[in-house]
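Dear Dr. L.,

I hope this message finds you well. Following up on our conversation about the binding site, I have prepared a predicted three-dimensional model of the protein together with ribulose-5-phosphate. For your records, I am including the exact sequence and ligand specification that went into the calculation, followed by the structure tokens. Please feel free to forward this to your student if that is useful.
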Amino acid sequence: MPSDLSPIDKAKFVAAKQATQYVQDGMKVGLGTGSTAAWLVKCLGEMVEKDGLKIKGVPTSTRTAELARDVGIEVISLDEAKWLDLTIDGADEFDGNLNLIKGGGGALLQEKIVATASDQMIVIADAAKNVETLGNFPLPIEVIPFGWQTTKTLVEETLIGMDVLGRKVSLRMNGEAPYYTDEGNHILDLHLNRIGNARQLSLILNQIPGVVENGLFIDICDIVIIGFGDGRVEVRDINEGSVEEGRIDFLETDNLFADLND
Ligand SMILES: O=C(CO)[C@H](O)[C@H](O)COP(=O)(O)O
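The resulting structure of the complex is given below.
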């Protein structure tokens, strides 16, 4: 077993590896963004190269598009694909109803569009992302740069009437400058600590002029695959209401793991 990887990275890897079992020849697959999704893309690239897996990938960011091409996955746009069989992505938090906070990596807009245009969305995550109530992770919202400070004020005023614990709103930065998304927008991070009614908050935030989308994914995710640092995986399926457990043996995957870690 590679010793230089943290238990969290191993957990992300086993969740991603388990998710590849849902990918079949001929599928159009949405490819998420972030460190866990990057493991998935690398695993799928390995399957394309070594097993001749034939898939078309729709990436959710320029970062993922580059990685997917690098590992040999055929990349198409969502407009070319029109509809997807499956999207696999990471998350910043998920709750017992498989509702999510996403957008820690700034790609929430494309991620939500792509996941919504899929028959099935699978989230891959380490166990630390599992929460009872969403909101400890700051909720990202994507806003257009025009008048963003006014939009921020409107968001702050809106939060006064909401069932949340914190109300601090900060502009995401990239060093000294504001962060820009792939669509040329900014991100406001909402430090809410606890979101009492995520469905209501999501609907209300999206009504504010200047807000393009928020990082709450409500009723979008079907399955969460949770990875643990010792190789265990747990699969939660919202439709089946089931929980399955398994294990990925690091000894069996050691070579792949080492290759992918290059
Ligand atoms: O939503 C996302 C990017 O916008 C990511 O999926 C989320 O931030 C989780 O990232 P990681 O897998 O690196 O923990």
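In brief: The chain has two domains: 7-131+219-260, 139-214.

With kind regards,
A. P.
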